[in-house]
Amino acid sequence: MSQFPACPQCNSAYTYEDNNLFICPECGHEWSATATADAAEGEKVIRDSAGNVLQDGDTVTVIKDLKVKGSSLVVKIGTKVKGIRLVEGDHDIDCKIDGFGAMKLKSEFVKKA
Questions:
Q1: Which of 106, 35, 25, 101 shows the shortest CA–CA distance to 70?
Q2: Of the N and C termini of the chain, which has fewer Cβ atoms inside 10 Å?
């Protein structure tokens, strides 16, 4: 019926676009147009805090002091992390940090170096 994708919640074909959002008038669901484009590629794209696409093996820099759960240690701002691995889940970066060991980080707290 239209060139816009069907609603992911109710499969309605009557979606429309408003700025960078797709909106379903039947169920009221809103979703990002860029997320739809990324999903169409078939692969989940993980981006850093600045919007740069991250890949396995990249070097990133921590942009905020991060408390280590279960410890009194803190990963300081500006800490460089080399050779990251991207994984599924809430914490989508798996890495080793010198002085801390193996950790999982959220991509929203790092920027590509």
A1: 101
A2: N
Q: pLDDT tens, 2-18?
A: 588 888 888 888 888 88
According to DSSP, the residues that pair with 23 across neighbouring strands are 16, 30
Concatenated DSSP letters for 25-88?
A: TTT--EEEHHHHHHHHTTS---B-TTSPBP-TT--EEE-S-EEPTTSS-EE-TT-EE-S-EE-S
8 within 8 A of 22, measured Cβ to Cβ: no
Q: How many residues does the chain have?
A: 113
**Which one, of 67, 58, 73, 65, lies nearest residue 111 by Cα?**
58
Element containing residue 111 per DSSP (H, E) = strand 110-112
Q: Note the pLDDT tens digit of each residue in 79-91.
A: 999 999 999 888 9
